Amino acid sequence: MKPYNKNLKQASRDLRNNMTDAEKLLLSRLRNKQILGLQFYRQKPILNFIVDFYCPVANLVIECDGGQHFTDEGLEADRARDETLAQLGLKVLRFDNLQILNEVDDVVEVVYQYCLKEISKESPL
Question: How far apart are CA 92 and CA 86, in angstroms?
């Protein structure tokens, strides 16, 4: 289990109860182990962050980015956050909310291909 700030538990619950349309759509494609039988957790606290989706087996974080992520401050905060998560061995895939809403099949394919590559590293044929 990755370390997390226990003070973020309630905020994480609140975010799960107030998901964006993009998060809901992506969740519908990730839930119930639809991708390679992998479990994805939503609004998961890791360190001092709450990530949108987390798959521990693939060491993958998926972020659904709204407009606030595309300001200078947002881009810098995301860069620092991604760098910190990378130090834990996590890969962060970021998708724009509009990309998820308009091209969900393409987004899911990127996630699928990444997970396939990661799990095949652990159990070569």
Answer: 8
Q: Which two tokens stand for residue 119?
A: 């799990």
Q: Residue written as tokens 């970021």?
A: 94
Which of the following CATH numbers is that of domain 6-119: 2.40.300.10, 3.40.960.10, 3.10.20.30, 3.40.1190.20? Answer: 3.40.960.10
Q: What is the value of pTM for the model shown?
A: 0.89
Q: What are the strands of the beta sheet with 60-65, ordered from one edge?
A: 41-46, 49-55, 60-65, 91-96
What's residue 67's pLDDT? 64
| 42, pLDDT greater than 70 | yes
C-alpha distances (whole Å) from 59 to each of 53, 74, 91 are 11, 23, 6
Helices (H), 64-103: 72-86, 97-102
Tens digits of per-residue pLDDT, 97-121? 999 999 999 999 999 999 999 998 8
Provide the residue ranges of all domains of the chain, joining segments of one domain with +.
Answer: 6-119
